């Protein structure tokens, strides 16, 4: 049992040091939409914190996880040096380590089942932005920036070759994006030249039911201040 708790204490220290140092680097670096800083912090700098945390975790186990029992001296005998007493596990320390491990295990299980990619499936979202009458499409694809937010992450939508469309006399923009997480918080934003960024919420279940193809088109939230309408449909083959 001592060996198991010692290993767990060291692993918890390594995990805390690794993630803590990586999070500190990301926090000091500021916003990171493309994820490059976060990946560098986790894979390049995080291991340094992991080594330090591993040493600290083992030291904490030796320092606080083991309690030394003082052996009483025989009556009438005064030894020159007190004999070393036997050691035992610290009950509070053991309970703390086990609770932390159980909490992390539950958190990992909960996070893993939220990813459709890990449940043998995927979700593809197709969005269509209908511009108001008289509004023209941008000349260049680079002038169209579409971003989808789900939970606390962001994904840049891709414009297909036929991204230019129309609905009667109204111009439209079509785009697709792969959704990665099961969450109730989804939103999409559109940025065009000389037009402030427009944002709509996407009303979808946390884990949409599978569909044989794309679902019917649905209208997003209320039209934006620029009178642009957002429509979306979902494919969730699993």
Provide the fold topology.
Blueprint: H1 2-29, H2 36-65, E1 66-68, E2 87-89, H3 91-112, E3 123-130, E4 145-150, E5 153-156, E6 164-167, E7 170-179, E8 186-192, E9 195-201, E10 218-219, E11 229-235
Antiparallel strand pairs: 1-2, 3-7, 3-11, 4-5, 4-8, 6-7, 8-9, 10-11
Helix pairs in contact: 1-2, 1-3
Structure commentary:
This protein is α+β, with helices and mostly antiparallel strands. Helices cover 34% and strands 26% of the residues. Strand 8 and strand 9 (195-201) form a beta hairpin. It starts with a helix and ends with a strand. The model has no long low-confidence stretch (mean pLDDT 82). Residues 228-238 have a biased composition (Basic and acidic residues). Keywords: Membrane, Transmembrane, Transmembrane helix.
């Amino acid at each position: 049992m001592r060996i198991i708790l010692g290993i767990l204490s060291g692993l918890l220290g390594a995990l805390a040091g690794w993630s803590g140092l990586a999070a500190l680097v990301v926090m000091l670096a500021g916003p990171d939409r493309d994820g490059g800083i976060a990946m560098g912090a986790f894979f390049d700098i995080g291991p340094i914190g992991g080594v330090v945390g591993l040493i600290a975790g083992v030291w904490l186990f030796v320092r606080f996880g083991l309690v030394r029992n003082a052996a009483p001296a025989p009556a009438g005998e005064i030894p020159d040096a007190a004999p070393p007493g036997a050691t035992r596990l610290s009950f509070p320390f053991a309970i703390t380590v086990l609770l932390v491990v159980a909490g992390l295990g539950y958190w990992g299980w909960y996070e893993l089942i939220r990813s459709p990619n890990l449940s043998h499936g995927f979700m593809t979202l197709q969005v269509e932005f209908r511009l108001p009458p008289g509004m023209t499409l941008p000349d260049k694809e680079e002038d169209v920036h579409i971003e989808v937010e789900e939970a606390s992450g962001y994904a840049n939508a891709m414009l297909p070759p036929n991204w230019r469309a129309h609905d009667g006399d109204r111009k439209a923009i079509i785009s697709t994006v792969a959704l990665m997480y099961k969450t109730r918080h989804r939103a999409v934003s559109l940025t065009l030249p000389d037009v402030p960024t427009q944002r709509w919420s996407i009303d979808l279940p946390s884990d949409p039911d599978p569909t044989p193809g794309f679902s019917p088109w649905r209208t997003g939230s209320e039209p934006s201040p620029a009178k642009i309408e957002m429509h979306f449909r979902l494919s969730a083959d699993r």
